[in-house]
């Protein structure tokens, strides 16, 4: 015969709070908005104080980045034309632009290695190192 399973119930006590009013929600929202705005302004100020670095993006990258490369960091955006001309941008943005160009160059190199089918022959497994 099968045993009957006993259902054990425990008394659960939960703290009941009063419903949040619309005024409290608005006050909390305004406080968070003010803090975010203050942080944005301090970041914008630090960007203005940064050293400006010359950067250029070759037209070769136009199919990958578009006519204009938009870079956004912490809500601050800049747009760099992909035309081969030199532009001065804050160092933080320059680093991001260089990283994007480097990543695209790595993709170019990877495609080049993989497309070289005649040289991608190995006499023993693991001999060829593509990546």
Q: What structural class should be given to the helix and strand makeup?
A: alpha+beta
How many beta-strand runs?
4
Return Rg in Å: 29 Å
Biggest beta-sheet profile: 2 strands, antiparallel
Structure description:
The chain is α+β, with helices and mostly antiparallel strands and 131 residues long. It has helices at 22-49, 62-65, 91-115; strands at residues 52-56, 68-73, 76-81, 86-90. Strands 1-4 form a two-stranded antiparallel ribbon. Strands 2-3 form a two-stranded antiparallel ribbon. The chain is elongated.
Can you summarize this structure?
The protein is of the alpha+beta class and 131 residues long.
Task: Note the main attributes of this structure.
two-stranded antiparallel ribbon, 131 residues, 4 strands, alpha+beta
Topology:
Layout: H1 22-49, E1 52-56, H2 62-65, E2 68-73, E3 76-81, E4 86-90, H3 91-115
Antiparallel strand pairs: 1-4, 2-3
């Amino acid at each position: 015969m099968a045993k009957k399973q006993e259902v054990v119930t425990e008394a659960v006590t939960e703290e009941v709070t009063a419903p949040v009013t619309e005024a409290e929600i608005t006050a909390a929202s305004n406080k968070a908005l003010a803090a975010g705005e203050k942080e944005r302004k301090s970041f914008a100020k630090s960007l203005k104080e940064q050293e400006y670095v010359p950067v250029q993006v070759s037209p070769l990258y136009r199919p990958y980045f578009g006519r204009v490369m938009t870079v956004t960091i912490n809500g601050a955006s800049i747009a760099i034309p992909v035309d081969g001309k030199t532009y001065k941008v804050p160092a933080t943005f320059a680093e991001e632009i260089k990283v994007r160009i480097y990543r695209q160059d790595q993709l170019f190199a990877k495609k080049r290695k993989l497309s070289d089918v005649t040289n991608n022959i190995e006499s023993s497994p693991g001999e060829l190192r593509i990546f």
